[in-house]
């Protein structure tokens, strides 16, 4: 007989600020919740609290894996560096090990692996997975357990459209089998079984009749973009980059199969494709992270790749953000350090910040409303704020080329819109843009070209797009 | 070939031993310029070879790999490492004659045969680089006089060299030029450029000499780094089992404890490690380590003396000639110890518990680090060199024990280090027999603070703290660590 879950008068404070004030919540059987609301309102903490005090499985908004020695000292380019030592388990070994530990049968999820397009990944090492594929693995492991209470923090982060559909169907299936759901998200495309909505308002849990009634972060007040970002970067080449018939192979496995792609200075491109279609690998050829780019026909900023340039010469011209970079970012960097490291393209480390640079950091922190967090560790902030800090880092040096790989992951609708408006404004000042995003509703308006990948090949290229948001 | 060091007059011996200068970052202002456009050929594509090559290429330099014909034909791992990353690969005959800089990154033991194969192929006036000076100093390899001989030795495993570079940082590095082989005086500019190419200039560079590097490296690895970690681990485990502690727990406490405890050295040196203990535990660890230092000092001195006189390398090379008979026998014996054969238990041990329940290891580490450092400095090695070869490397070696115990440590380190490690271990265990008789589970296996009220004699504590903090290894360590800022968080297992 399912029982109700009661939470009675919880209090939580963080850094001297009260988050929950006598928060109480009763969750009745057959209720499936979306827990939404403002960032920093204590949603994630509440999910973790529930999981710790009740018989529940909690799937975090952050995935982790270790190498065979239990170590986590990875760097984000490691995916692309090949060496013969096997550092991490394969997906198959990981799932087998997990099944053994939890007393599960791998045959039970065979069709789910198929639905997620995961079968061809089984022999890949964990280090080789893209961020979207890691997210799927994390979800598969959690859902497989069929717990009585399943709490998922940001279930859709980094998932492509198809995977999101598969996830929702699986969640509905579990709901009919008696699994109770709590999804912590502000996303609107939730499973049909969701029938209850709640958010935390002024420290208390408040139920609402519809998801629309959940409070989103306020639309931020428009601020003027700092002057230094209005300077049009100097370029003396027609093309930002040109890739010709680019192939990338890992042993027998070919992940990019003859890519041709040319981007002219000032163009604003959208790069799309399913999880695992090769997007991040393609971008790693542009930002100097892929060792195999030597010997390929790649021209960056008017110079043939491998003609004596260093990766630091390349990175200097690119403002970059990606889920992987976020994941591997220095755990000990403060928000201020994070921004400062953007001048040196280092991960949280820098030499000596000059007076002018300090001023730019200040202006940009103010612009993104980050000033009050400047001395806090990046990883101690809500995910959305971390993202904003990394975005600020990516534009701090006013680079000619912006490479934004799913920059709005972890941001809610209003935050994403705000950020994309900023991107549009930056593009008015001569920046070239490569933007990866899964949802048309979350894109900068100014995008005028589009490239789509499927299975490591170019599926479509569109020029002169009028309105990408259509 | 005669031992190079022993052919030198005493004044030149002291001169070369005493080269240790922490370099100012301004010395690297020319970046990789001295090697720009030059052809760099790396011999060997293991962990150091591959990762250094990736860094050098990413710094805008022209890198290829020369491998032996069989390695290419049989598509061995070294061949795959290089070709999978789109490097140009060829045989010695194909590539060496084109090289301006040949970087030898093969294992120590192969140096003589590699150099004998490579040297005749090298073009007039080219440069040859080593990452360890044993071949030059102990084996007395003579390099053609037109060739420049340099050393660039990152003081971290190859994987770290790559990871830190890509983070925009680097690992501490030691560089040297062999005074007998610098005909065009291009040794230093090239060594510096190579160092910049690997990112080392961002983490602190020590200007050294082949002699100083070898004599300090051998001493460090035989005593504190490998020898004492092995002896301390085995004695600790056996003691716990003898006293009835669960073997699974004992195995885990030792295997991971060594790593967790020595991690603290990275941030705060010996005193930082000791500060992790409660006051009473610190006093106890201090007293134990004082006693350990007195007992082990003659053994440390013997090792340093044998290294300086060349006796160590002579006997080891005799064993090489004898098909590694001793090495293989001792390796097998280590594989048979109870510690090695008892798997770590499935118990959770918190980070602090490793300190509280294993006071003895902190005592071993303090005694070993200070003794190795003191002995090296007394023998004419400069404190900076001695620091790198004692305190700095201890956590790196401890990390290998955490992976797969002593077997793994001895697999990862060079055969030279392994040989010296066994020599030390065999002599040290009997030396500590009486000491270990007095040891009980309060300092190894159980929480030392249990049942104690935490109070200590304040004056005594002040004196102990003073003694720890003012030791020369701490003074020089603070200076050197400042240059290596980006340190990683202490790990818990």
From TrEMBL, chain A:
What are the alphabetically sorted keywords of the record? ATP-binding, Nucleotide-binding
Keyword Nucleotide-binding belongs to the record: yes
- Asked if the keyword ATP-binding belongs to this entry, the reply reads yes
Q: Where is the ABC transporter domain?
A: 5-227, 241-469
Q: Where are the transmembrane segments?
A: none
The record's section on SMART domains has: AAA
Any one Gene Ontology molecular-function term assigned to this protein's record: ATP binding
Instruction: Give the top-rank taxon of the lineage listed in the UniProt record for this protein.
Output: Bacteria
> PANTHER family attached here?
SKFA PEPTIDE EXPORT ATP-BINDING PROTEIN SKFE
Q: State what protein this is by name.
A: ATP-binding cassette domain-containing protein
Protein source organism: Sphingobacterium tenebrionis
UniProtKB/TrEMBL annotation, chain B:
Q: Which cofactors does it use?
A: Mg(2+)
Q: Where does Mg(2+) 1 bind?
A: 217, 221
Q: What sort of enzyme, by top EC class, is this? A: oxidoreductase
Q: Where does NADP(+) bind?
A: 45-48, 68, 76, 78, 108-110, 158
Record: active site: 132
- Identify the residues that bind Mg(2+) 2: 217, 389, 393
Q: Which reaction does it catalyse?
A: (2R,3R)-2,3-dihydroxy-3-methylpentanoate + NADP(+) = (S)-2-ethyl-2-hydroxy-3-oxobutanoate + NADPH + H(+); (2R)-2,3-dihydroxy-3-methylbutanoate + NADP(+) = (2S)-2-acetolactate + NADPH + H(+)
According to its UniProt record, the EC number is 1.1.1.86
Q: Which Pfam families match?
A: KARI_C, KARI_N
Which controlled-vocabulary keywords does the entry list?
Amino-acid biosynthesis, Branched-chain amino acid biosynthesis, Magnesium, Metal-binding, NADP, Oxidoreductase
Q: Which InterPro entries match?
A: 6-PGluconate_DH-like_C_sf, 6PGD_dom2, KARI, KARI_C, KARI_N, NAD(P)-bd_dom_sf
Domain KARI N-terminal Rossmann per the UniProt entry, residue ranges? 17-208
> Which residues are listed for substrate binding in this entry?
278, 414
What GO annotations for molecular function exist for this entry? Answer: ketol-acid reductoisomerase activity
- What family does the entry list? Belongs to the ketol-acid reductoisomerase family.
**HAMAP family cross-referenced by the UniProt entry:** IlvC
Instruction: List the PANTHER family.
Output: KETOL-ACID REDUCTOISOMERASE, MITOCHONDRIAL
Q: What is the annotated role of this protein in its UniProt record?
A: Involved in the biosynthesis of branched-chain amino acids (BCAA). Catalyzes an alkyl-migration followed by a ketol-acid reduction of (S)-2-acetolactate (S2AL) to yield (R)-2,3-dihydroxy-isovalerate. In the isomerase reaction, S2AL is rearranged via a Mg-dependent methyl migration to produce 3-hydroxy-3-methyl-2-ketobutyrate (HMKB). In the reductase reaction, this 2-ketoacid undergoes a metal-dependent reduction by NADPH to yield (R)-2,3-dihydroxy-isovalerate.
Q: What is this protein called?
A: Ketol-acid reductoisomerase (NADP(+))
Q: Upper lineage ranks?
A: Bacteria, Pseudomonadati, Bacteroidota, Sphingobacteriia, Sphingobacteriales
């Amino acid at each position: 007989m399912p029982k109700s879950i009661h939470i009675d008068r919880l209090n939580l404070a963080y850094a001297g600020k009260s988050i929950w004030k006598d928060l109480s919540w009763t969750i009745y059987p057959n209720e499936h919740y979306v827990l939404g609301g403002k960032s920093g309102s204590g949603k994630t903490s509440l999910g973790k609290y529930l999981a710790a005090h009740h018989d529940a499985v909690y799937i975090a908004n952050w995935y982790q894996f270790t190498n065979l020695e239990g170590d986590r000292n990875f760097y984000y380019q490691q995916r692309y560096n090949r060496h013969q030592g096997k550092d991490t388990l394969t997906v198959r070994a990981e799932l087998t090990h997990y099944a053994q530990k939890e007393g599960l049968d791998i045959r039970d999820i065979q069709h789910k692996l198929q639905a997620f397009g995961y079968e061809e990944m089984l022999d890949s090492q964990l280090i080789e997975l893209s961020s979207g594929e890691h997210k799927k693995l994390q979800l598969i492991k959690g859902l497989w357990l069929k717990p009585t209470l399943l709490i998922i923090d940001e279930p859709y982060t980094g998932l492509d459209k198809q995977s999101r559909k598969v996830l929702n169907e699986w969640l509905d299936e579990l709901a009919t089998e008696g699994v109770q759901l709590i999804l912590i998200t502000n996303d609107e495309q939730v499973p049909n079984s969701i029938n209850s909505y709640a958010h935390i308002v002024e420290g208390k849990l408040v139920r609402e009749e519809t998801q629309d009634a959940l409070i989103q972060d306020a639309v931020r007040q428009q601020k003027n973009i700092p002057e230094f970002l209005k300077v049009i970067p100097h370029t003396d080449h027609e093309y930002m980059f040109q890739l010709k018939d680019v192939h990338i192979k890992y042993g027998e496995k070919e992940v990019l199969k003859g890519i041709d792609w040319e981007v002219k200075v000032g163009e604003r491109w959208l790069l799309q494709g399913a999880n695992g279609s090769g997007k991040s690998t393609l971008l790693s050829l542009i930002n100097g992270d892929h060792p195999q780019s030597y010997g390929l026909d790649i021209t960056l900023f008017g110079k043939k790749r491998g003609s004596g340039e260093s990766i630091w010469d390349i990175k200097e011209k690119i403002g970059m953000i990606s889920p992987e970079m976020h994941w591997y970012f220095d755990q000990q960097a403060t928000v201020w350090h994070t921004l400062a490291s953007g001048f040196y393209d280092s991960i949280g480390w820098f030499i000596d910040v000059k007076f002018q640079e300090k001023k730019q950091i200040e202006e940009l922190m103010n612009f993104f409303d980050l000033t009050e967090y400047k001395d806090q560790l990046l990883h101690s902030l809500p995910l959305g704020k971390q993202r904003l800090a990394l975005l600020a880092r990516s534009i701090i040096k006013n680079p000619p080329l912006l490479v934004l790989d799913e920059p709005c992951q972890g941001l809610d609708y209003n935050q994403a819109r705000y950020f994309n408006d900023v991107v549009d404004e930056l593009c008015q000042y001569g920046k070239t843009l490569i933007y990866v995003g899964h949802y048309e509703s979350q894109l900068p308006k100014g995008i005028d070209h589009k490239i789509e990948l499927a299975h490591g090949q170019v599926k479509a290229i569109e020029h002169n797009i009028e309105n990408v948001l259509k | 070939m005669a031992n190079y060091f022993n052919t030198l007059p005493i004044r030149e011996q002291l001169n070369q031993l005493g080269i240790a200068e922490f370099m100012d970052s301004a010395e690297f202002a020319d970046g990789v310029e001295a090697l720009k456009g030059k052809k760099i050929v790396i011999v060997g594509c293991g962990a150091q070879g591959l990762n250094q090559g990736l860094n050098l290429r990413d710094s805008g330099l022209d890198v290829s790999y020369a491998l032996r014909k069989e390695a290419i034909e049989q598509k061995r791992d070294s061949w795959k490492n290089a070709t999978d990353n789109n490097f140009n690969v060829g045989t010695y005959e194909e590539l060496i004659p084109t090289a301006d800089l040949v970087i030898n990154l093969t294992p120590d033991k192969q140096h003589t045969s590699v150099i004998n194969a490579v040297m005749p192929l090298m073009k007039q006036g080219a440069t040859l680089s080593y990452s360890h000076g044993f071949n030059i100093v102990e084996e007395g390899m003579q390099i053609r006089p037109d060739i420049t001989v340099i050393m660039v030795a990152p003081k971290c495993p190859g994987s770290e060299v790559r990871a830190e570079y890509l983070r925009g940082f680097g690992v501490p590095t030691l560089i040297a030029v062999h005074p007998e082989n610098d005909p065009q005086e291009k040794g230093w500019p090239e060594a510096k450029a190579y160092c910049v190419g690997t990112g080392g200039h961002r983490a602190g560079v020590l200007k050294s000499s082949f002699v100083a590097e070898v004599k300090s490296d051998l001493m460090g690895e035989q005593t504190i780094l490998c020898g004492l970690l092995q002896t301390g681990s085995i004695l600790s485990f056996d003691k716990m089992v003898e006293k009835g502690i669960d073997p699974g727990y004992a195995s885990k406490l030792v295997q991971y404890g060594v790593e967790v405890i020595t991690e603290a050295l990275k941030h705060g040196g010996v005193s930082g490690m000791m500060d992790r203990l409660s006051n009473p535990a610190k006093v106890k660890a201090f007293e134990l380590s004082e006693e350990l230092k007195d007992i082990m000092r003659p053994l440390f001195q013997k090792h340093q003396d044998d290294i300086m006189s060349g006796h160590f390398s002579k006997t080891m090379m005799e064993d090489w000639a004898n098909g590694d008979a001793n090495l293989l026998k001792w390796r097998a014996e280590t594989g048979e110890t109870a510690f090695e054969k008892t798997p770590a238990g499935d118990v959770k041990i918190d980070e602090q518990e490793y300190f509280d329940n294993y006071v003895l290891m902190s005592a071993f580490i303090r005694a070993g680090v200070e003794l190795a450092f003191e002995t090296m400095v007394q023998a004419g090695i400069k404190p900076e060199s001695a620091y790198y070869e004692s305190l700095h490397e201890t956590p790196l070696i401890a990390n290998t024990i955490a992976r797969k115990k002593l077997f793994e440590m001895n697999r990862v380190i060079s055969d030279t280090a392994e040989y010296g490690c066994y020599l030390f271990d065999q002599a040290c265990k009997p030396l500590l027999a009486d000491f270990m008789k007095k040891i009980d589970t309060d300092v190894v296996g159980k929480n030392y603070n249990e049942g104690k009220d935490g109070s200590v004699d304040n004056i005594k504590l002040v004196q102990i703290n003073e003694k720890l903090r003012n030791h020369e290894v701490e003074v020089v360590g603070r200076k050197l660590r400042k240059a290596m800022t980006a340190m990683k968080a202490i790990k818990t297992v």
